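User: My instructor asked us to take a sequence, write out its structure as tokens, and then describe one feature of it. I'm not sure where to start. Here is the sequence I was given:
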Amino acid sequence: MIPGPDAAYDRLLDVLGALFLLVVLAMLLERALALVFEYHWFRRLSARVPGLKTPIALLVCWFTCQHIRFDILAQLFSNAPGDSPATEIGVLITSAVVAGGSAAAITLFQGVLHFGRDARLGLMEANRAAIEAKTAEARLRVNRAEAASFRDSTTGFRAQGADDA
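Assistant: Let's start with the prediction itself. The structure tokens for your sequence are:
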């Protein structure tokens, strides 16, 4: 039996809400994990132990999804809107998607929106270099103007001295 338009609309809203929650959760956890991952002692530790961020992100995402009983699979594939009991495997897969989605979120934040620490530092360095270039150019113009003024004054002085002789 084909569901009526109201049931289909309710189902669409349920699925879109679940997907929106998934994206928001991935971005929130990414920003929360960035606080730890961008800290100087963690950077030194992760340089010595490569691949440390992924298991930590997965564990934090699993704990969060388990705590709020968030199972995207149950919400996407349930028969009735709003009636979707979370399963352990669904929570695990959801947490893996959130942890993997946070990698896309960090790319968005740092690469495109320049919200990451490295991007911020790079932007500050680029601005500093632009200011230094403008300052050097202004100094060069002042030096050229002073040299031209000095030449004009010495030329006038020489011409006046020639008239006196």
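For the description part of your assignment, you could build on this observation: The chain has a mean pLDDT of 82. Try explaining in your own words what that tells you about the chain.
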